[in-house]
Amino acid sequence: MTMLKGTNVPVPAQAVRVELGWRAAPGGPDVDASALLLSSGKVRDDADFVFYNQPAHASGAVRHEGKVTDQDRVTDTLTVDFSRIEPAVDRIVVAASADGGNFGRVTGLYVRVVDARSGAETARFESADATVETAFILGELYLRQGAWKFRAVGQGYSTGLEGLATDFGISVDEPQQAQRPRSPRPTSSPPAPRPVTPPAAQAVPQPVPQPVTQPVRLTKITLTKEAPSVSLSKQGGTSGALHVNLNWEVRKQFKSWGAKLGRAIAMHADLDLDLCALYELTDGSKGVVQSLGNSFGSLSGPPYIHLDGDDRTGALSTGENLTVNLDHKDRLRRLLIFVTVYEGARSFADLHATVTLRPQHGAAIDFSLDECTVPSTVCALALITNTGGDLTVQREARYLVPQRGVSPQRTIDAAYGWGMNWTPGRK
């Protein structure tokens, strides 16, 4: 149902997908979804802010799933599992921020709440009165008398995501001005010092170290054809874990059978994409990390790369995730991240996938795959190279077409000159 600003509806589902959508336009700003988990109107700490640089709440109740592009339509999705929300949380604010412009230049902006299990739409609110705002609270999920509801809000901020976040108690990472030391107030005649008797020797209590809270970083990087590369070192992403996420849209595909009979059978394709990585270490060793053959890798030892599992749902879950241990970046010479179609489609045509690289320290890097126009079943996503200790991420988004009888892995190997020997494998 389409809602008016300020109205509310019950949300009977146990888990929902909160989808922000808009119409992409040349030169228009990008839009990012976020959520704030509130207790008595404020976040309890910075971990209650879920967005592109912090995509999952520790409780697992709220996740940022990422963007999907379908021709001129773009969606960015959050998932909410009410059964996992902590008792102190009584409100979840659903917000949007504009990157590269204001919401007056965004057309067709809406938010809708969908039952995660049945797919039925519970609520929909369309925002059409934005002007100079660069951040928006589109709606909120709130607890009332033991039941969850959704309210259409439509409140804008001209101060962007930073202004919205700080309003709810988030500490944002920003340059701090150095404070000048205070000068002592002059006195007319300082009193003469009194003689002091030295105290007996005693143990001096040591200060207890306090945990250091890292402010939230709101910066992000989008790789495009015009700006395809970025240095991880310059972004501060030189240590810790580098998380690579692949999300895709599960679509219903239609095939026509028996044209003479004039009938069509709708088939649901069980689309399965596999996130993989070719690696080369500085000692010359080479290999692949992939679910095929259960080659999931390792973070504590070579190749310091690990694939967390084989996901067959894409955007309905967390996609596929690969982690690189940047604490051992000096052992890494190059890393090619690629994806293959394992089953459910004959090519990437009409499949919409997004790739996000999240360094533990530094800005998130994301890009979407362009529309495929060739019968490709393997796509090179990104190439990470180590040049003099500087890790550079190069957006590839390169679709390759395997020759008959040649596997996608052999095809990607030949294109990038890895020179490995391949044997058949299975899941």
From TrEMBL:
Residues 187-198 have a biased composition (Pro residues). Transmembrane segments: none annotated. Gene3D superfamilies: sav2460 like domains (2.60.60.30). Residues 174-213 are annotated as: Disordered. It comes from the Bacteria. Residues 2-168 form the TerD domain. It holds the Pfam family TerD. Belongs to the CAPAB/TerDEXZ family. This is Tellurite resistance protein TerA.
